[in-house]
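Input sequence (390 aa), recorded before submission:
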Amino acid sequence: MSQDLMFQDRIRTVVQDAYRAIPAGGGREVAQRWYAPEELADVPTVAIEWALGVGNPVRDAALSQGETVLDLGCGAGIDSVLAARAVGSTGEVIGLDVLDDMATRARRAAEAAGVADRCRFEVSEMEALPFDDASVDVVVSNGALNLSPRKSRAIAELVRVLKPGGRVCIADLIVDDDLPPEVLASDASWAGCISGALSERVLQRKLERAGMTEVTISGHLPLSIDHLALYPLFNAEVIELMRRLIPQERQDRVAVAVVIKATKPTRTVERDASAAAAVMELMASGASHLGDIPPDAIEAPGVTVRHLKTVEDIQLKVLDVEPGGSTPHHVHPHAHEGIVVAGVGALVLDDRDEPLEAGSVFSVAPTDRHRIANRGPRPLRFVCMDCFVE
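Predicted structure, token format:
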């Protein structure tokens, strides 16, 4: 039997049980904090009664007629209904929730709003989306990403199902300062998105590492303990715990509601195709040995760089790092990828080291300062794209 070392199954069960247990959402008092009166006028009562969101991602997503939208963690359907009106009769909204009851409520809301013809609702986990690659134009989400115990996996799935040039617009909570452990350990804090909240810097980095660009985080609306008390997911016990353990000067800013937007690059497929073409051209060029390729003039002691090919802005290079040596600290304007051919070493980032060995595939987000260090007795050889491109 596999061990749940990261308590992912436990967290998932806690969140789902908490949502099943509440008799209703935050109602109109919560909904009015995020939606304008004219927006709520178009939303059926069943969806408003179950309002549990922490923002208005549809408003910020700038949806267009005919787009396909995935509403991740659709709940009772406020955002699905608003998105369906925005994309019109030629568009489609796919609502996804992990709970059957929520998907059923959202389906009823779409029917009551008269937009059921352009909506469908699925039940699945966000870490394993039941949709084809590059099948949606926009992903919106409202207070759902923090519920995932595997956020990197959930973000990777969002990127997978987005079309090149597609975008995400996510409303969620960030927590930049640690809360008391007694609060973080409570089931209610997980269900209410507090325990699973990331810092702004970590959230942005996760999106960039998944390949998203133009990442912006805006809004920054503080939520006090009184605001959190409006959500039935936070029971009286955990609210009292917050009032007792969180310093008074911080009780009006327990968490911050933000809107996260990002874009999937349109050139992902082009870059992959160009890199493949470069390798094929190199193979056909008649070069019989890597040593036949003269090294580049890179001033890095113990580092030899051989330039294989340039196709558009993609550079393919082979680097040899001598034992005890390291590439200089450097950054790239876009994602940098590589694969280790031989030797052992580490990808050294500002906040951590990632071990490397033969067969390791690594990637570095744009603007991340890094170096590759040899930590073995023999030369470390790796092939990279975009190395030393400034």
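Checked by second reader. The chain has a mean pLDDT of 82.
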